[in-house]
Amino acid sequence: MSGTLVLVRHGQSEWNLKNLFTGWKDPDLTELGVEEAKTGAQALKETGLKFDVAFTSNLIRAQRTLDLIMDGIGQTDLPVIRDEALNERDYGDLAGLNKDDARKKWGEEQVHIWRRSYDVPPPGGESLKDTGARVWPYYMTEILPRVLRGETVLVAAHGNSLRSLLMILDRLDREQILSVNLATGVPMVYKLNADSTVASKEVLGDMSKAH
User: Fold this and answer.
1) What are the structural domains of the chain?
2) What is the pLDDT of residues 59-70, one digit of tens each?
3) Is 136 known to sit in a ligand binding site?
4) Is 142 a catalytic residue?
């Protein structure tokens, strides 16, 4: 058995609450987002996992979620590696817009295609495929080797950067990933085999709040 990989989507951000496209914009967590991170930390603490390293993006909502988790599990001295490879998908011209306003401007169907297709990017932004194109190499070169050495690795990132990873870990194709939504603040614990395949997966906490 190799190591353990834990993925956590950041808690609710101020722009999630306002129904805005966020992408590489940098709002902080809401009070609910802070509570979601603390709840995730408590669930992780109960597993007794001891982490060797943590990875997060260059965006404050993911970094703050990680800080709250590290504090909650009593591992504030954990080495942290930040990289924009783990950033949320770049929504380009949609970033900062209210989702309802975007639908009025471009039409419901077009906005749905940008949000939920695999390889159609919004104007000036990234598709899920584009996001994966930066997440996958980073995972293969920086994160996976540590897990295969037997380390326990924590990744606090974003809905779409983590969905890219789920395509590899859960062996999801470009159609299957479109229906996957990740709950905020809910840790997913993967134990990997020596060949990098998944030996087991456990979702900590209530998935009924996935959205």
Assistant:
1) 4-204 (3.40.50.1240)
2) 999 999 999 999
3) no
4) no
